[in-house]
Design goal:
Strand order of the largest sheet: 9-10-11-15-14-13-12
Distance between the termini: 73 Å
Number of domains: 2
Largest sheet: 7 strands, antiparallel
Strand content: 25-35%
Radius of gyration: 32 Å
Helix content: 40-55%
Number of helices: 9
Number of strands: 15
């Protein structure tokens, strides 16, 4: 490719073109992609931990922001701002690329220039080439009226003369827009599952109560507020009052972990000796000394059983229902 070859193009930045530019440029930004990956990982971790309320809250915040973005129309606001700076007219620019330089000339005759060595990336949309520079600057080249050669020759020329390109590859914005939509779909799926699991959990205590009463135990459920969280507690008693079982739904894994360890320390000086199971969302203590105590954490739930060693089979029978 000849070094002294010249390419030129005229672009009119109406709203349709501005939106195409903003979407194409934004969808390929590395920070946006990293943010989406981190967001998905965090949401999945919250789901694994059973923190469905946190996932739902994040989902509500995201939906509110998306609605505001849609209603306010950020792209339209930025487009109008650009238009107002150009005396209320759509910005019309002529771009000339030759001799290692990029020269932009507006319809008012204002010019600005850049070096081809400043280009670090090339993005392609349906109608545009976007030449990426540092500090989130993008130069628009309209593919539909490119003069000086074909689109392929233009790209080859840039590959040859843009010495600081991070990679000699044209980034297709369509692919990244599709990936972004897939991420959004995954987020919506996770939010939907969080709502379903949360509803299932909200009825779990009542199901426990029903089964325990069918077995002849006395069970009752109460709600109370703890550290700003509304939690449920079920109290279960045996007929002879020899055993008592508490089932707490803290709605929050952090509170469940804290209370499990606090109660285990109260029941035994060296609590670690009594750990019977410890894996991720599940931890179990069985303390069979002067009395019989079973402490279990399942996600946001803590099961706290106390009784006599003589009647520990009965307490184990109660715990089987909720464990």
């Amino acid at each position: 490719m000849e070094k002294d070859k010249e390419f030129s193009s005229v672009s009119v930045l109406d709203y349709k073109r501005y939106k195409e530019f903003a979407l194409g440029y934004g969808s390929t930004r590395r920070a946006n992609i990293i943010f989406m990956v981190i967001a998905i990982i965090l949401l999945l971790l919250y789901m694994i931990q059973g923190s469905y309320g946190t996932v739902i809250l994040i989902g509500i915040i995201c939906v509110v922001f998306l609605l505001l973005f849609k209603i306010i129309g950020i792209n339209k606001i930025q487009y109008k701002r650009t238009k107002n700076l150009n005396n209320g007219e759509d910005l019309k620019q002529t771009i000339k690329i030759s001799d290692g330089n990029i020269v932009l000339t507006s319809q008012k005759g204002d010019t600005s220039s850049y070096k081809l060595s400043q280009i670090i990336g090339i993005i392609e949309t349906k109608n545009l080439f976007i030449l990426k520079l540092k500090y989130n600057v993008g130069i628009i080249v309209d593919k539909n009226n490119l003069i000086g050669g074909s689109k392929e020759e233009f790209i080859d020329y840039l590959y040859e003369n843009c010495t600081n390109l991070k990679t000699k590859k044209v980034v297709q914005s369509k692919k990244w827009i599709t990936i972004r939509r897939i991420f959004l779909g995954l987020c919506l799926l996770i939010f939907g599952l969080a709502i379903i699991f949360s509803l299932m959990n909200s009825n779990r205590m009542e199901k426990y109560e029903e089964v325990l009463e069918d077995k002849g135990y006395k069970a009752s459920i109460n709600e109370h507020v703890n550290d700003g969280y509304t939690s449920k507690t079920m109290t279960v008693m045996s007929d002879n009052n020899s055993n008592i079982l508490y089932v707490y739904d803290f709605k929050n894994e952090r509170l469940a972990k804290h209370n499990l360890e606090y109660w285990a320390e109260r029941e035994a000086d060296n609590k670690d000796e009594y750990i019977k199971a410890d894996s991720g969302n599940y931890k179990k203590y069985v303390i069979d000394n002067d009395g019989y105590v079973v402490l279990i954490r399942k996600g946001n739930f803590v099961i706290y059983g106390k009784g006599s060693s003589l009647y520990k089979d009965e307490l184990d029978d109660m715990i089987k229902v909720v464990d």
